[in-house]
What we know:
The chain has 169 residues and is an alpha/beta fold. It is 28% helix and 21% strand. The chain has a single domain, classed as Alpha-Beta Barrel (Aconitase, domain 4). The protein has helices at 16-19, 46-50, 72-78, 92-101, 144-151, 155-168, and strands at 2-9, 56-59, 82-87, 104-107, 119-123, 128-131, 136-139. The longest helix has 14 residues, at 155-168.
Amino acid sequence: MITGKITSVYGDDINTDDIIPASFLQQSTDRKFFAEYAFDRHDSAFRDRCKETDTNIVIGGENFACGSSREQAVYAIKENNVVCVIAQSYPDIFYRNSLSNGLVLIAVPDTSAFQMGDELSIDLDNFTIENKTQGTTIRFEMNPDDQSTFKQGGMVGRVRSHLEELLAH
Length: 169
């Protein structure tokens, strides 16, 4: 179960340069570094809102995180205590980078009902998002293999879990 508060709502076509400007990409290899510059030019208040809670949820429209293959965009979001992004769609490369790094992404047909400050409870086992603030529940679809990977914290978590299983036998 993932619980959190919606602290950012964006429209369509938020690109990776909006998330982490290219000028910061070569300045560090430390994932935490990118948190300081998340949405630096697009939404400079993003980081302050994310400091208000340890369980932030970001809402996007169509094509969230389009534009490039930069993995730093995932780091910039995740290192700001974002536990989940809910959008209408994602480019494949951002989806794969998020899956690898354990940033839970959920696609739903319409995100217009989600509002800043809404408290959500996301059940990856039953594919539901309960909006506790509005008293509504919506269903989503997810590939079962991706579901398992997200639940294990990404590909690193999945590999770790698999190795532990092998070593236990």
